[in-house]
Amino acid sequence: MEVLISSKFTIVDDNYETRTIKLGNDDPNEVEEVGESATRECKSYVFHSAENKLIRFIDTPGMGDTNGLEQDVKNFENILWYISYHKYLNGICILLKPNNSRLNVIFKFCIQELLSHLHKDAKDNIVFCFTNARETNYRPGNTKLLLEKQLEDLKRQSRTDVEINVVKNTMYCFDNESFRFLAAIKNDIQFTESEERNFAESWKKSVDESLRLIEYLLKRRPHKIKDTLSLNNARNIVIFLSKPLAEIGQLIQMNINLIRQKQGEIDSSSKTIKELQDRLYILQIDLEPVKLGYPRTVCTNNSCVELKQIERTNSIKTDYVKHCCPHCFLRFSKSNVVNNKTLRFCSAIKFSGNCKVCGCHWKKHMHITYENKHVSHIIKDENVESQISENMSDQEIKKAIVKEYQKMRDQLQKEQQKINEISLKFAQFLRQNAIAAFNDAYADYLDHFIEEEKVKKSADPSYDESILEGLKTTRDSYMKQVEVIKKAIENNDPSRPPIKPEQIAKLEQQLYNLPLNGLTLKKLKYEAERSQTDIFRYTENHYMP
Ligand SMILES: [Zn+2]
Ligand SMILES: [Zn+2]
Ligand SMILES: [Zn+2]
After folding, report:
1. 3-class DSSP state of 373
2. Measured in angstroms, how far is the CA atom of residue 296 from the centroid of ligand 3?
3. What is the DSSP letter of 533?
4. Nearest ligand to the C-alpha of residue 367?
5. ipTM (interface pTM)
6. How far is residue 287's CA from residue 310's CA, in Å, rounded to a whole number?
7. How far, in Å, is the centroid of ligand 3 from the Cα of 365?
8. Domain residue spans in the chain?
9. 349 C-alpha vs ligand 2 centroid, how far in Å?
C-alpha cells in the first residue's frame, strides 16, 4: 500500500492477538510511545493534484502536548518559524476529539494561545476538524458546546468584535478507522462482513467530509502569513519591554524622591553655601541587569523577601532571597511572568496551588531570567556649580540650586509620561491586531512594583510614601487611558487609527532615545529577550500519483 504519510499502529486481530501495522518509511518525527502526542516538529505533505495544483498539508505538533506547557510554547515558536517559509494559508484546521470530557484549563490555554498568535484577518480561515468521529455518528459531539463557550468567554474577556463561527461550514468530522482497516487487510487480517460494511461507511463519510473541507477552504480568501508573522514580531517587542518599562517606572520614582530630598535639605538648611559645598550634589540610582545562570522562580511575598539599603542612599531595594525553583524549566520567553497561570506548572508548585518550598500561593511567585543591581551615581550639575560662582547671597544661591534640580525632576516626570504614552500605543496595537487580546503585562508589572513598595512601607517607619504614590499615579493614569482606548476600539473611533506592526519598532527606538533612561531601558530589554532560540528543521514530503 502506497502512502505519503508513514504511520504505525496496533490492531487486535480476530484471534485477539495484538499486531503492529507499519506503513511507509520510519519517521523519527512520529513518536511511538503510547500516550505521547505524535508529531514533534512541523512537516509538510504535498499532494500534486490535477491541473498542476499542489495541496500542501502542514502537520503541526499538537497542543496540550503530553510534554507539558513549556513544550506548547516551544511548539508555537516552531509553527511560526515553519510557516514563515510560505506566503499564504488557505485554512487553519484545529483538530479536536468530538467527545472530549477533559476539555479543561489546558484546552482553554491552547485556544487562547493559538488565537493570540494569529492575526485577526486569519479568523475566516479557521475550521474545526473532529477526529475519531464514528463514535458520535460523524457529528461534533459535546466538544462543540465547550468550544462555543470557550470562544464566547474569550470574546468577552478581550472585548473584541472578532467572531469565530462554529457552524456547519467550519466543522468537519472524520474517522481514520477505514484507513487502518485497509492497511490491516493488506496485512492479511480478517474481518467480518458487518465490520467491512462499517468501514466502508466510515470511508465514504470521511472522503465526503474531506472534499467538503477542501471546497470550503478554496473559497476562502487566503490568509497572508506575513501579517501573522509581523504581528508576532511586534508582539515580542512589546512583551519583552513590559517588565523593563515597569522597572524604569519604579526607578524614576526613586530618583525623583532622591532629588526631592536634596531640594528639601538645601532649602531648609541654615548653613552657608560654603559649608554646604560638599553636599550639593545629588545621588541617582541606575539599574544594571545581571543574567542568571538559569531561569528562576522566586517568591515575592513579604515574608519571603529581604529589604536592603542601596549604597550611599536611604532608598531601599527588594531582594528575592527565596529561590523556590532555582533552575526552572518553564519556558516563559514569550509571555508575561507575573500573574501568569503558567507558573502553576513550575515543579515548585503543588497541585493545591501552594509552593512546596515556601508555602506561599503560586500567585505570589515570579519567574525571572535576570536580576538588577542597583548602583548609585553622584550627579554634579554644571549649572549648579556655576550658580555658586555668581555674585549672589547664600539664600539666593540656594533658591537657584533648588530650581535647577526641579528641572531634573521635571525631566524624569516627562520621560515617565512618554513611557506611558508609548505603552498605551502598544496596548492599542495588540488589541487591534490579534484575534484574542493578551494580558496587559506592563500593567501587571506596575502592580507588582506597587506591591513591592507597599512591603517596603510596612517594614520601614521612615519610608517616603511619595515613591508609592508616584508609582500608583503612573499606573492609574495608564489604566484610565487604556479604558479610553478600549472604548474607542469598540466604537471604531476614527480618531484612533490602527497602529501598524512597523510602527512598533519605531516606538521602541523612541524609548531608547530617552536622554535619562533610554540606555538603561535598552540594556534591560536586551537581558529580558536573551533566550536560546531553538533550531528547527524544515522538512517536506512530496507525493505524485
Ligand atoms: Zn520551576
Ligand atoms: Zn515559593
Ligand atoms: Zn513565599
Report:
1. strand
2. 14
3. P
4. 1
5. 0.96
6. 11
7. 7
8. 7-225+537-543, 226-281+386-514, 282-379
9. 7
Inter-residue contact 94 to 114 (CB < 8 Å):
yes
Tell me, what amino acid is at 477?
S
Looking at residue 381, what is its pLDDT? 78
How remote is the CA of residue 327 from the centroid of ligand 1, in Å? 7
How far is it, in rounded angstroms, from Cα 475 to Cα 482?
10
From the CA of 298, the nearest ligand is 2
Measured from the Cβ of residue 10, the count of other Cβ atoms closer than 10 Å reads 10
pLDDT of residue 35: 44
**Distance from residue 361's CA to the centre of ligand 3 (Å):** 7
Number of H helices, E strands in the chain: 13, 14
Q: How far away, in angstroms, is 320 Cα from ligand 2 center?
A: 11
Q: What is the pLDDT of residue 198?
A: 86
Quick one: which ligand is closest to 343's CA?
Answer: 1
Cell of 494: 476614527
CATH number of 7-225+537-543: 3.40.50
Q: Find the ligand nearest to 303 CA.
A: 3
- How many angstroms does the Cα of residue 303 sit away from the middle of ligand 3? 7
In order of 156, 376, 424, 537, the CA distances from 250 in angstroms are 32, 15, 18, 43
**Contact between 83 and 89 (Cβ < 8 Å):** yes
Q: 68 C-alpha vs ligand 2 centroid, how far in Å? A: 21
Euclidean distance between CA atoms 94 and 155, whole angstroms: 18
* pLDDT of 185: 83
What protein residues have CB closer than 5 angstroms to ion ligand 2?
299, 324, 355, 357-358
Let me know: does 460 contact 453? Beta carbons within 8 Å: no
Give 308 Cα–ligand 2 centroid separation in angstroms.
20
* Cβ 188 vs Cβ 53: under 8 Å: no
Report the separation in Å between the CA atom of 235 and the middle of ligand 2, taken as the mean of its atom positions.
30
Ligand nearest to the CA of 342: 1
Three-state secondary structure along 221-285? CCEEHHHHHHHHHHHHHHHHHHHHHHHHHHHHHHHHHHHHHHHHHHHHCCCCHHHHHHHCCEEEE
For the chain, how long is the longest CA-to-CA vector? 113
Give me the residues of the chain with pLDDT under 50, please.
31-37, 333-336, 532-536
In this prediction, residue 334 carries a pLDDT of 44
